[in-house]
Amino acid sequence: MPFVNAYVSEEDAKKYDLDNLWNKYRRFGTKMPELLKKFDVHQHAWCVDKERGYWLFNCGWVLNYDSPSGIPEPTNKQVFILHIDGQNIEFILETGRWKPSDLQAIGLEYANSFPIKIAWEIVSMNPSCLSTMSKAGLLTILKEALAVYKCSGLRDVESNEEALIRCNF
Questions:
Q1: How far is CA 110 from the centre of its chain?
Q2: Pairwise CA distance, residues 53 & 48, whole Å
Q3: What is the pLDDT along the chain (169 residues), one digit of tens a residue?
Q4: Which residue, 37, 99, 105, 138, shows the most beta carbons closer than 10 Å to its own?
Q5: Furthest CA-CA distance within the chain
Q6: Cα(first)–Cα(last) distance of the chain, in Å?
Q7: Contacts of 163 (CB under 8 A, 6+ apart)
C-alpha cells in the first residue's frame, strides 16, 4: 500500500506521542492538544504507508524569533518527521520556486495549469542515515511521501489538487 494522507487515530497519536512531537518544534502559540480543537477535524494528520509502517508528520513552520516586530514569524522552512523502522528522522525542508528550465522541461502549458508550484529543498536531515537504510533510501521514501503530501496533506485538499511539486534532492 502506498502513502496516503490520513487522519491519525487517537491510539497512534498516543503511541507516537505526536502532541509532544509537535510541541517540541512549536515554542510559540497554541500547543497540542489544545490546537487540535481549532481544526475542522480534531485529530492529527499525517501521510502514512501503513503496510511498511512509515509516516511523515509536519510539525509546522520554522519560526524567526528575531523578527523586526518582536513577534515570531514563520519562514519558508517547515519541520517534518519521517518515521522509518521505529526511528524518527528530522527534516527541515524549504519551499522554493521552480527553475524556469524545469518548468519548460515538463511543458509550460502543463506547468502553468497549476496555480501552486513548490520545489522542496532539504535544509537539514538528522540523522542522515539509519543502520537499516542508507541516506539515498531515506530520500527515496521522503520523495514518495511528499509526492502524496504535496503542500498541505489532508488539511487542505483543494490546495493539494492545485499543487505541482518537485523534490530538488
A1: 25
A2: 8
A3: 699 999 999 999 999 999 999 889 877 676 777 777 776 656 889 999 999 999 999 999 998 889 898 888 889 999 999 999 999 999 999 999 999 999 999 999 999 999 999 999 999 999 998 999 999 999 999 999 999 999 989 988 889 999 999 999 9
A4: 138
A5: 47
A6: 24
A7: 114, 116, 117, 118, 150, 151, 152
Q: How far apart (Å, rounded) are the C-alpha atoms in residues 3 and 46? A: 10
Dist. CA 146–CA 109, nearest whole Å: 23
DSSP assignment, residue 42? -
All cell numbers assigned to 138: 531515506
Residue 44 carries which side chain, given as an amino acid letter? H
| 8 A C-beta contact, residue 84 and residue 133 | yes
Which amino acid is it at 34? E
